[in-house]
Input
Amino acid sequence: MNAGNTKEGRLTKQRNAGKRIKGMVELLNIDCMEIMPRYSDNHFDLAIVDPPYGINISQDLHKRGISCSKNGYRRWDFKAWDSCPPNDKYFDELFRVSKNQIIWGGNYFDLPPTRCYLVWNKVQRKFSFADGELAWTSFDKSLRIFDYSRGSALNNSKLDKIHPTQKPIKLYEWLLINNAKTGDKILDTHLGSGSIAIACHNYGFDLVGCEIDKEYYDKMMIRYNNRIAQQDLFTYDDIYRN
Ligand SMILES: C[S@@+](CC[C@H](N)C(=O)[O-])C[C@H]1O[C@@H](n2cnc3c(N)ncnc32)[C@H](O)[C@@H]1O
Output
């Protein structure tokens, strides 16, 4: 198929021709439980969220950093955000304000059966961390897999790895290209590093996102502003198509 005829091809062509519809990206340093009540039912077309899984990953990465720092392993400060997963009230609000949902960590939460899981296959095996991550979705369509290696993720985020569980921008772009329509309003209740914000900017989607932790939020804003400023200087393909 001619690449220009795919959805990604059309969006990329529009963007490179300077015709990209500018999305409105609103990033807030606030508890998501404070922001969701402000919106009416079904306000957002799609929620793409990555809440704490309740597995203490932050503590685990902090300890691993101490024991492996000689091998160049990054040391992350301990933060308690992953000690408990969101409660039922969170999911009630999420399902109220959004028409469709993609929920990372879907295998950790008590969600209804679905036929459409989305899988991030991290390609390299034999690490102590999981070989991939699962997102539960509200879609009635086939399961899909995105292959993106830990190595690529690490290389592409070398300069701006700011969060211990940072997901790749390309992963969010893949989610948007395949599951959102032009003009959709997107919600992310747990921004972390804000990779989704850069992806939404790149593809012209409106986003409301929030992050409760001030330190992560401040780093995310710097990362976001740097990335979009770079993009205005070079073409998108120069920076991201590697
Ligand atoms: C799994 S991480 C998100 C990682 C993100 N997907 C990325 O690519 O960087 C979850 C984030 O949610 C934040 N968080 C936890 N509880 C929150 C809440 N009630 N409201 C907003 N953010 C919250 C944590 O500080 C943490 O940064």
